[in-house]
Predict the structure of Helix-turn-helix domain-containing protein.
Amino acid sequence: MDNIPIKPQSTIELRWESLPLVLSVEQVAELVDVGTQQIYDLSRTKDFPARRFGRIIKISRDALRQWMGEDIHKPVDGGWQDESNTMSLVRQTPGRI
């Protein structure tokens, strides 16, 4: 049996502005590539930017970005560059052995 090569990671560029201002638990879970239960667990912590509306949980796009520590102003040669429109996500790509 031949081994099928595994591509360990892929990079996806995502524009923050293309996301809705308010995200659902499912959208955040997909965005950061974790299970929804992990987001529900995080929503119970004090510092996670989730808000409850009865049984519904919503997360602010901008507050999530800040909570994740996304540095939108990065130093570059000759000055500072504003990269507020783009975020890179590295996801594990499932493969077969």
Q: What stands out?
A: The chain has one domain: 9-73+81-91.
